[in-house]
Amino acid sequence: MNLYEAVYNRKSVRHYKMELLPQEFFRNLRKFEQGLQSFTPEIKHSVELFNAMDGEARIKGLFHVKAPYYMVFFSEPGEYAALNAGYLLEQIVLYMTSRGVGTCYQGMAKTVGLQGPAGMDPVMVVAFGYADEKLHRESFRAKRLPLKELCVFKEDSTEETRLMLQAARLAPSAFNRQPWRFIVYQNRIHVFARKEPIPLRSKEDRIEFDMGIMLSHVTLAAEECWRDVEFARKENLAAREMRSNQYFMSILLA
């Protein structure tokens, strides 16, 4: 299973076997993580892994999942720092899925006594380990809005564009809110964010993190279709006032 295939099979795992993962898994994971391309390379980040069975990690918070391991993404502050975290972390999560390891985002988790590099703050916690439940899920069972409710098609879209949108549709998000909406042309997709409050966390950071997850799915689908994509912000769209949505970014298809 590659990462694109994992997009269609990954599910949140909330029950884990309290068992050790092999050291080879961690070596391969580090190699994979170090080879990833950041969305914002100028913002430094660090991915730290903690063994909860050895007492290395103390995670608290609402909806906290008990797991043998936790991964914490630390980042410097900066523009699109949360987006970059979601963009990178989702690829790591999909890599774990492809290697038979379950994962679950801990959006309300609080780290207790876990220190990251100087100048970096924790952005997201992910529980992981061997699943004590079904690891994969068929994509049709995912509780997601259909494309017709997420997209406005201004022009006929290509098969590749629809594959990218389907991958975007399957992206996980806080409380499964799916904050993204799309206006679709043949050579570009304008991405908008729903104006909805998200409790107990900065709305802007949470939406931006979720958008990073979604854009990682678009990138993986584009690579699967041998298409190049670029991400850009169109200031003429950003200046428009809209009642229900706010312009976020554009996806340019080469």
Q: How helix-rich are the residues, as a percent range?
A: 25-40%
Strand content: 15-25%
Question: What topology, given as strand order, has the largest sheet?
Answer: 7-8-9-11-10
Distance between the termini: 27 Å
The run of helices and strands is HHEEEHEEEHEHEEHEHE
Categorize the overall geometry.
Answer: globular
* Secondary-structure content class: alpha+beta
Instruction: Count every helix, treating DSSP H or I runs of 4 or more residues as helices.
Output: 7
Overall pLDDT level: 91
Q: Gyration radius, to the nearest Å?
A: 18 Å
Report what the structure shows.
It is a single chain. The chain has 254 residues and is α+β, with helices and mostly antiparallel strands. It contains 7 helices and 11 strands. Strand 7, helix 5 and strand 8 (180-184) form a beta-alpha-beta unit. The two termini are 27 Å apart. The mean pLDDT is 91.
In short:
This protein is of the alpha+beta class and 254 residues long. The protein contains seven helices and eleven strands.
List keywords for this structure.
24% strand; alpha+beta; 254 residues; 30% helix; four-stranded antiparallel sheet; five-stranded mixed sheet
Explain the layout of strands and helices:
Elements: H1 3-7, H2 23-34, E1 45-51, E2 59-60, E3 69-75, H3 81-98, E4 102-106, E5 110-111, E6 121-129, H4 147-150, E7 151-153, H5 159-169, E8 180-184, E9 188-194, H6 203-224, E10 229-232, H7 235-238, E11 245-253
Parallel strand pairs: 7-8
Antiparallel strand pairs: 1-3, 2-5, 3-6, 4-6, 8-9, 9-11, 10-11
Helix pairs in contact: 3-6, 5-6
